[in-house]
Amino acid sequence: MQKYRLDTIPREVARNRLLNAVTFHPRRETVAVIDARGRVTAGPVNARRSMPPHPAAAMDGIALRTKVTRGASPTRPVRLREGRDFTYINTGDPLPENADSVVMIEKVNILEGGWVELVEPALPWKHVRQPGEDVAAGEVVLPAGHRIRPVDQGALLAAGVEQLSVLCPPRVAILPTGSEMVPPGLPLQPGQLREFNSTVLAGFLEECGAVPDCRGVVPDREEALREALVSAADRCDILVVNAGSSAGSKDFTPRVLAEVGEILLHGVAARPGRPVVLAMIGETPVIGLPGYPVSAYLAFDWFVRPLIRHWYRSGAAAPPPLLARLGREVQGGPGAEDFIRMRVAHVNGRYTAFPLARGGGVTMSMVRADAWLRLPPETTRLNAGEQVELEWVRTPAEIERTLVLTGCDDPLLDRIGAMIGRLSPGWSLFREYTGQNEGFDLLRRGGCHAVAIQGDLREEGYSGMIRIRVAEREMGWITAPTAPEPVSGVEDLIRSGLRLINRPPGSATRDRLAQLLDEQVGGRLPSGWERTEGSHWKAAASLAGGTADVTVGPRSAAEAFGLRWRPAWREPLDLVLPRSVAESEGGKALIETLRSRDLREMAAQLGGYDDSRAGEIIDPPFAKNSEGGRWEL
Amino acid sequence: MQKYRLDTIPREVARNRLLNAVTFHPRRETVAVIDARGRVTAGPVNARRSMPPHPAAAMDGIALRTKVTRGASPTRPVRLREGRDFTYINTGDPLPENADSVVMIEKVNILEGGWVELVEPALPWKHVRQPGEDVAAGEVVLPAGHRIRPVDQGALLAAGVEQLSVLCPPRVAILPTGSEMVPPGLPLQPGQLREFNSTVLAGFLEECGAVPDCRGVVPDREEALREALVSAADRCDILVVNAGSSAGSKDFTPRVLAEVGEILLHGVAARPGRPVVLAMIGETPVIGLPGYPVSAYLAFDWFVRPLIRHWYRSGAAAPPPLLARLGREVQGGPGAEDFIRMRVAHVNGRYTAFPLARGGGVTMSMVRADAWLRLPPETTRLNAGEQVELEWVRTPAEIERTLVLTGCDDPLLDRIGAMIGRLSPGWSLFREYTGQNEGFDLLRRGGCHAVAIQGDLREEGYSGMIRIRVAEREMGWITAPTAPEPVSGVEDLIRSGLRLINRPPGSATRDRLAQLLDEQVGGRLPSGWERTEGSHWKAAASLAGGTADVTVGPRSAAEAFGLRWRPAWREPLDLVLPRSVAESEGGKALIETLRSRDLREMAAQLGGYDDSRAGEIIDPPFAKNSEGGRWEL
């Protein structure tokens, strides 16, 4: 294994170096206007015909010569005869020979026998569209480099243009690398990984008007990569290699690129996405993207999109930033920009943004991200409460129809997010496991709409809160197949020495477990006490994967992974939300979901829930030891 | 011809009436994830496999058991041997059996002979991605009703999902009506019109995820329409009829709809787009759109788009409004909403919006529109200077890269807009003919970037202005083929009695003409003195179309339409812009265009221009009778 240093070139400098190295000569082709949506004009397009081609009625009414209406007044109306003095005409119809005005039908007094009466004179060319009023032959309809929209197609056809010259899209090769990578559709052997970045990158390319050319997976041999690069450079306008751009032992992409072409740079001062490599093979630019999905997608934005705009000679079209308040402090590293995935809560008309999990490989975080926050290199920290400009991923309208549910973790709660949009079109739900205390803290600061709570709790100053039952859930000991015996209590746990996955600090389940350990084994802590996973479900996944032996969680999580489960206690699982939220459109959508048949079906399917009071309002919302309390099975 | 009244039902009420009448049962189909971009999930999609499937390295480095590093410190480093104590590992690789930590390569001191040294102990599960860390088997990856993006495809493949159930798109019939309408591609006979609305509507439908089914043109016979409706209702989920919804003599769509189905309403309280008809044929909704393009597109937005969202059970996704200041007062009518096409100037960081021409049939205005302004029914007027919320058509980023050029009218100036984007990618130019005085007024109020001027003029307080030569142009008398003799002066004009097309009040050409009439024919005015067209080019188009006989304009306009032309005078054609604009990115793009070979080629192609000083700075910018003056040929 060798270590080598990446460049730390500012992103802007890197992009300019790339664009300056490239001279594209886009091909052109002639297409029918009816097939031209989304294409980019190769040159200005002029009208071939005037629209309207002839003087035309701009209103439904009668066409006539103005002179026949001379002197008309309410006291001396003028009588006109159809055929001789006027013709009925519809909007858009050509004006008859000699007519020079249209009187709208509302001003025409229709009499018997083909006669009409007017009480005021017509004005010349009134309600008449002149030839070329919309567009005159020879006028410019579209400039060069214009991406054609449906309304442009309409204007072109109206202007007599049936075909036009457009730029051919650039052909972009996508070369996935890695002997362990298997394309979608083929079976996976142990140790192999699904190659999905090509699919994502191909989608991005199609969205920005390029034609992806997905090549087969290139195995980890320098010779194979060399051949693949040279052959793709022959056939394509841009090459995207994924991955092999970082500094691991198999990352020989830079070395091979230096052999068959010329390296422009290796490494930009931006995180994640830093280990990108830019090169030229002859006239063809090559972008070596990092393998981690989020890094790859960012580096695609930084270098591949600008290349495609360069091809079309079009400008960037970034939407206006979303202004939000930071709900939590954000940290970056020194010496480089940081790009941070954010989730955004829209509560009481204010946007509040929170950083998402930052692991570069987390594909789900890209699904969940609402926006990006960029920290410039000189900024390593922004405090909660600061105003920030975000680049949105989901539109503000989507964000405004997203409920944020924090608090305790439960698989059934996760399912609510998958159901709410079906019952209330357009609504979605974002789940974040924060524990109850942080959940209430967020609720107070406008960072969420509702908090999930388990068991009973005392809450001071709860006026204005509503508490709604989701279900009662069965909690218990979940044991992995690695353990000889299932654990069914704290004594078992300590005696066996099995490796625990705990809940994070601040979680009610963790507190409950600590209490049991205090009561039953004198406070001794099991192995793994400090190890936590993101959720009960993920803890069960880790048990199934063999990296730990036991956890405490809901029966549903155990059943999903076929793990052994022994009951510990039952507890209510409720949502708490401010009355103002409950009465809002989103709050109603949430409550409707809790009361739906879908929720009950899902609870039954997961197992371990009693939904007999689902959707009931629990009053008072917080209590000392009321009916909402926790009890042993 | 009969007159009948349209309903004036508020748009919101009309839409709800339609949506309440419709119950869709969208079909489902299974598609491969790699083909699923843009499709909408039919139900929640859960992970089939955990990602990562096994504990994996989160960093390049060495994998080991933490216990072998116990006690390591700078003073007492621990030496480890490859194979026995550790394995080199790359990011993403599965952790070897028994390893429980990864030490990043940057912290490994590599020695000779397969030995390494560590100066601090490794922490359990550090730099290890747990199974399911990204997504655990059974977790919800996507909710129901979610439109699939490339990043979603990535997450689905990572989660072991290769196929999924999606909603089939609704099939929407487009029925164009009108015996005079001819589809694109077929030759036009006199009196026939190109049917282009179907192409526009089909593009809109594809953009919002529906499948357009473009039917042939339905001739103006009730029976033909009846048959077309019934047959389309049989095969499609939604019917769009265009047009026949207004109250002209051929507009029997409502009557036929009432026979074969049930009318929900005919007419909404919104302009333009008011004469829409909504109906049901059995279970199938029918939207009768007005024929005027702008009205049709608005009514499409109001009723067809919501139906398609209803099909997918998805929410509206309107972008945030663009906040702008009104640059000119805006008037609406009473009793209904008004939708007004706006152009938006971005000058010195401020958005200023101006209404565009309002003729409903003007397809070019849809090409030129930057945004929509909605006036509620109770608002009939907004004053210049008021703050308004606009719905953008072009993105704010596009608007920010658009130069607005007002002032006098000239065909060569129009061509600049078609060239600027080729020389300066992303930049475009919006031309508005305002005359010079209003142009300067707009310049002062931030409504434009530059003013085109002709001839010489005095301008007080011009400090900070730059004037740049475009060309000298030849102005003269343009005579239509309808006239027996070409006109070559004001005496000719008065003597012949030919019909003039004049320039609008405030135009320098009109003033010049008035002066000549005063000097040579004692101020007598020719026939048509008050008739104007939007531009020299459009005036020439009207002459070619036979609705007038003579105008004064540049040689280029005459030549384009093959009209006779007699010289009158030569004059300089210049641009005036503030120094701050000239030094901005957009100003530089404009000046570069004026100095380009493209401009000279275009001037030569149009004819009637002397470009020998094109791009020169004229100093001083304004003068009494300097070299910039106007003189006879």
From TrEMBL, chains A, B:
Keywords of this entry: Magnesium, Metal-binding, Molybdenum, Molybdenum cofactor biosynthesis, Transferase
Stretches assigned to the MoaB/Mog domain: 173-310
Reactions this protein catalyses: adenylyl-molybdopterin + molybdate = Mo-molybdopterin + AMP + H(+)
Gene Ontology CC annotations of this record: cytosol
Pathway(s) served: Cofactor biosynthesis; molybdopterin biosynthesis
Gene Ontology annotations of biological process type: Mo-molybdopterin cofactor biosynthetic process
Enzyme Commission number(s) from the entry: 2.10.1.1
Gene Ontology MF term list: metal ion binding; molybdopterin molybdotransferase activity
Cofactor(s) this protein requires: Mg(2+)
InterPro entries: MoaB/Mog-like_dom_sf (IPR036425), MoaB/Mog_dom (IPR001453), MoCF_biosynth_CS (IPR008284), MoeA-like (IPR038987), MoeA_C_domain_IV (IPR005111), MoeA_C_domain_IV_sf (IPR036688), MoeA_linker/N (IPR005110), MoeA_linker/N_sf (IPR036135)
Name of a matching Pfam family: MoeA_N
SUPFAM superfamilies: MoeA C-terminal domain-like (SSF63867), MoeA N-terminal region -like (SSF63882), Molybdenum cofactor biosynthesis proteins (SSF53218), Periplasmic binding protein-like II (SSF53850)
Role summary: Catalyzes the insertion of molybdate into adenylated molybdopterin with the concomitant release of AMP. May be involved in the biosynthesis of molybdopterin.
Similarity comment text for this entry: Belongs to the MoeA family.
Name this protein carries in UniProt: Molybdopterin molybdenumtransferase
